Structures are given as C-alpha cells and as structure tokens.
Amino acid sequence: MGGRRFYLIIILGLLSAIGAFSIDTYISGFPSIAADFHVSIDTVSYSISSFFLGICIGQMICGPLLDRFGRRIPLLIGLFLYTLASIGCALSTSIEMLIVVRFFQALGGCVGIVAPRAIVRDLFPLHEIAKIFSLLVLVLGVSPIIAPTIGSYLIIGFGWQSVFWLQVIIGIALLLTVFFFLPESRPGDASMSLHPKVVSANFFRIFTNGQFITYALCGAVVSSGIYAYLAGSAVVFMKIYSVNEQEYGYIFGLTAAALIGSSQLNTLVLRKQSSMTIIRVVLVIQTVFGIFLFGLSALGWHTLYSMIGCILLFVGCQGFVHPNTSALSLAPFSKDAGSASALMGAIQMSFGAFATALIGSLGNGTSIPLTAIMASCPVIALLIFGVRRLIVRGNE
User: Fold this and answer.
1) Confidence of residue 292 (pLDDT cuts 50, 70, 90)
2) Residue 141: which pLDDT band, with cuts at 50, 70 and 90?
3) What angle is formed at CA 373 by the lines to CA 98 and CA 30, rounded to 5 degrees?
4) Angle of helix 210-234 relative to helix 304-330, nearest 10 degrees?
5) Over the stretch 167-213, which tens digit does the pLDDT of each residue have?
6) What is the DSSP string of 15-51?
7) What percent of the chain has pLDDT over 70?
8) Rounded to an integer, what distance in angstroms lies between the CA atom of residue 264 and that of residue 248?
9) How far apart are CA 309 and CA 328, in angstroms?
10) Are 51 and 103 in contact (CB under 8 A)?
11) Are 375 and 237 in contact (CB under 8 A)?
C-alpha cells in the first residue's frame, strides 16, 4: 500500500497543479503578449481573472458530476476540454480572444483541482487529511519553481504561444495518466439527482454548514492574497525593479520553495498541534508580515531584496493555512465530498478572481495596490476565524 499510496499522491498532486501550471508558465510572457496585442500589462492580467472565473463556475458544475458519475469520467472529459482550449489559447489573435478561451481552459482544467480533494476525502481517514493535503502541496509546489523558468525560456526562444502548446502536451499527458493509472476511488451514485433544484439545495446545505463556511471563507480570503501576487508580481518585479524574464522566474521559484517548505513543516507540527491552533497562530504571524510588507511600500522604503524577503515570509504562511483550512472544511462530508470540494474551490477562486481584477483596475505603476491587497487578506481571515465560535457547531 505504501508504494500505491506514493504513486497516488504523485498523480493527485500533478492533477492539482494543472491550474497553477496554467498560470505560472505564462506570467513572464505578459510583456510579450501586451506588445503583440497592443494593450497594457494590466489588461493582460484580465486573462488570469477570466481563468479564475472559469475555475469558479466549472467547479460548481463538476462537483455534482463527480458525485453522480464517480471521479474518473468527469476527470477525463475535463482534461479533454482543457487540452482543446489550450490549443485555442495558442492560436489567439487578440487579447479578447485569449481572455475568452482562457475561461474555457479553466472550465475544463478545474476538475483537476476538485477531484483530487474529493479522492483524498474518499480514501484517507479524517485525521490524515491535512497531512495528505500538505503532501499534495509538495507536488503542487514544484510548478511555481520550474514553470516560470520553463515559460521564460520558451517565450524567449519561441514566443509566448509556445507556453500554451506546452500546456496542450501537459493536458494530453494527464489525460493518458488518468485513463491508464488512476483507479476509481468512489463509484458513481445513481440516486444523486442532477436536477438544478436538487443540486442547488445540496450546495446550500453544504454552504450553511458552520464548520464548512468558516474554514472555506478563511482559506479563500488568505489564498486571494497569493492570487493577487500572481497577477501583480510581473508589474512589480519586471517594471518597477527591472528584472528580466529569467530573474523573474527565479524569484517565483523562491516563493514556491517557501510554500513547499512551510507545507512540509506543517506535517510535522500537526503531530503535536491541532489544525485549528495552527491556523490561529499563523494568521496572526501572516498579518504582521502583511502589514510590514505594505508599510514599506507606502513609505517607499522597499528595495528589490526587501520586497522579495517580505513576500517570501508572507507566502510561506500559506503552506500552513491552506492544508488545514481545506481539511477542516471537508471534514463534515463523505458522501458528497465532490460537491463540498467544488464549493470550497469555487469560493476560493471567486475571491481570487476578485483580487486579480482589483490588481488590474487599481494598477498605478507602484507596488502599493498589490501590497495593500495582500496585507488586507490575513486581516480579514483573522476576523473570520475570530468569530468562528459564533458559527461552528460542535467540536472541531
């Protein structure tokens, strides 16, 4: 079982990384895309917002399908759609076309985000879920380390379209991996209705579960700070601090390493502390880091290295918060884990889409909009966590 468990985690981690990889590989190409389409970099960032919107809507669709038809069939269909849309991205002839096709790319790729969480809930006991999510982050975190570097070299050598052709290859590879190597973790439930009223009622029941909504919101708000960084970091580092594509890829890799390291440290801390305790302590720490990050920007005191250092500390906190909020959000559900995972992801991506849209609309050529949004996220999450006892029913 040890070997099977290892390969299962690898496959689930690779599937989970499809969304991150679809973003990380092309961010360094923002200046090239903007130049080709004669638009600003801030306008290009709307392609991230449309991607998040597609993931948000797509998760609400694929969640019930995962519960009704099992995990494999929706995965195969979603990966096929992702691959077709990736071809469309590579062939885009305008920024409007790219923004639209990115929406459909996310619509298909979102199943790679939802299904692994549901499969983890299917196969592992409750007390191991947070640890398994941390292990998935280990695989997921490889994407931000290698993807920007790969993307930058492809863009320099073959143009920004080559990044999306790479995503076509990735989509085909994942499609074949699921087809040949991923077993079904939970057969479909024919008794589950896909009627819109029934699906809506089920989502409402999940949404109104006190434990679910508390930790889903908490995790979503904190994650939106990371999504804001994804959308705004190209402007901050490449325009304000004049780093090139390769240097930007290295910076992105450093932040990913911070995320990976903290997520693995989380598995050790979980041996002695509960998920709830970890969330409480880390949110306070991240709030301090966020305020410091914004304060230096507002005062104009940031250097390139201080900006990188503050962001590393901020992003590192996510490795503790995300696995534990995800585990506590899904803990109350078993039969409809797919729908619960989808709703949790949809909430997270809707906040992410809003944060990235803010980056696009508030961009003023300085680091202040980005750092202000990042700093506000743990503050809001800490407030949500602080009133959890008024929401959560029962023991956690």
Assistant:
1) very high
2) low
3) 30
4) 160
5) 999 999 999 999 998 888 777 777 777 888 888 898 899 998 888 99
6) HHHHHHHHHHTTGGGHHHHHHHHT--HHHHTHHHHHH
7) 95
8) 25
9) 30
10) yes
11) no
**235 phi and psi, to 5 degrees?**
-65, -45
Q: How far is CA 22 from the centre of its chain?
A: 11
Amino acid occupying residue 310: C
Tokens representing residue 347 in the block: 């909430």
Q: For residue 331, which of 61, 120, 20 has the smallest C-alpha distance? A: 120
Which has the closest alpha carbon to 164: 12, 69, 51? 51
* Residues 319, 262 contacting (CB under 8 angstroms): yes
- 8 Å CB contact between 109 and 15: no
Instruction: State pLDDT tens for residues 257-271.
Output: 888 888 888 888 988
Q: What Cα–Cα distance (Å) separates residue 192 from each residue in 185, 197, 242?
A: 17, 12, 54
Q: Taking the alpha carbons of 54, 151, 235, 297 in that order, is the dihedral positive or negative?
A: positive
Fill in the DSSP letter of residue 71. S
The CA-atom distances, in angstroms, between 136 and each of 9, 57, 117, 258 are 6, 23, 9, 15
- Hey, what are 358's tokens? 């803010």
Integer distance in angstroms from the first to the last C-alpha of the chain?
Answer: 29
**Max Cα-Cα span within the chain:** 61
Dihedral (Cα; 351, 357, 362, 363), 10-degree rounding? 120
Report DSSP state, residue 239: I
Question: Would you say the C-alpha torsion 214, 377, 258, 346 has a positive or negative sign?
Answer: positive
Mean pLDDT, the chain, integer: 86
Distance between CA atoms of 365 and 245, rounded to whole angstroms? Answer: 18
Ordered domains of the chain (ranges, CATH): 2-182+194-390 (1.20.1250.20)
Residue whose entry in the numeric block shows the structure tokens 């009622």: 201
